[in-house]
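SEQUENCE AND FOLD
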Amino acid sequence: MRVTPTAALWAFVLAGCGFPGLSSEDLYGLSPSPRAWLSGIAMDRRSGAPLASVTIQVESSTTTSGGDGAFLLDRLKPGLVEGAGSKEGYYPASFELELRAGANRKDFALEPMSCGATGCAQNEVCHPETARCAVAAILTGGVVDACTGVALSARVTIAGASTCSRAIKPYFELRRLVAGGPHTLSAGKPGYRGYLTERSLAAGFNPHPLIELEPEGGCSSAPADVPCSCDDSGCQ
């Protein structure tokens, strides 16, 4: 029976004859069933930032990119192959590649979906500048009569969103706001002087100091209680 020298034996023989040592890629090419591997970086097409947790599939082999966007697929067959990268919130990217025995590289970028295509989670809001979902800001506070400290049912508005504070206890809450600013924060009620200030919002909860509304006629007057109404498109 004829014995075929292994790739490692060929490397030893060639080195003994004065030829330079063979690389791992050369050994892959000399082996009876050569194999290829594919490495690269997955990125965000808009920002160019590396993308973690991207699923990369080439033929029947699958892997996931790390925190730096890097991925590696090993033990692939050389030849023309089809592959794809996918991640939630991004459009999938497909590619075709001619793999050679040994090392191959393929970097690719995924296009992020707009808020309209993906929708946003309950605690997120669609950012008007980036069209990407971002953690929403929540503004909380209360409104009282500056003279008596009694809780008032007043209209509170910021960044196009409005609500009515509670008359039973001084509390209001505005949700799904876009972080940033400064925004104009206003509060008002018939019979009281309006409240106006500038307020920036951070992602997550933003407590606001108690808002005190002064009666238009001073503390000696007793404004008639007019219920707060909020029925426009920005009301919460």
Q: What stands out?
A: The mean pLDDT is 86.
